[in-house]
Design brief:
4 helices, seven-stranded mixed sheet, two-stranded antiparallel sheet, globular
Length: 165
């Protein structure tokens, strides 16, 4: 994936994405289950990106832990070349629970970001494209005070564009 290939050389620095700079302290290529993450637990720190070994990983293509004022935020990124994309929320919940189990720390927030190439002008997610609605309602949405709301998750996803290399 072009976007993931842009993250890897940024290790120890940051990646510019539109007007944002995303920290890339480290990245770990691993399976996304608790046993696999456990092997790298000492490297899973804020700014560390988890790159799944499987390219057909359900729900997201890459994930990152962030420190937000002393609380952990899990950023899950789905990269797509399509004008729309579905969400299967059970995969985000499974990853959050695995990280909580391994790190013995709570994750307070989850952010879901759809990253699309800058040449896609219209992108949409409808609630009918969301599976397992309500599964994230225990977490807050990115930096907001709002929790993930059942039947409104499609409105709580961020969409960012990147330039293909």
């Amino acid at each position: 994936m072009d976007f993931i290939n842009q993250i890897m050389p940024c290790k120890g620095g940051s990646l510019s994405l539109g007007s944002e700079n995303w920290a890339v302290a480290d990245y770990i290529e691993c399976d996304m289950d608790s046993d696999s993450i456990e092997q790298f637990a000492n490297r899973v720190v804020p700014g560390c990106w988890l790159v799944p070994n499987k390219w057909n990983q359900g729900g997201y293509d890459i994930a990152c832990l962030l420190d937000l004022n002393g609380n952990l935020l899990l950023r899950c990124v789905q990269i797509t070349n399509s004008a729309s994309h579905g969400l299967n929320l059970k995969y985000f919940r499974e990853l959050a629970r695995s990280l909580i189990s391994v790190l013995k720390q709570e994750i307070e927030r989850i952010e879901i970001v759809m990253v699309i190439p800058s040449d896609i002008l219209d992108f949409s997610i409808t609630q009918s494209m969301v599976k397992y609605s309500g599964m994230l309602n225990a977490w807050k949405v990115r930096e907001t005070k709002t929790t993930w709301r059942k039947n409104y998750e499609h409105q709580q996803v961020r969409v960012l564009r990147f330039n293909k290399t």
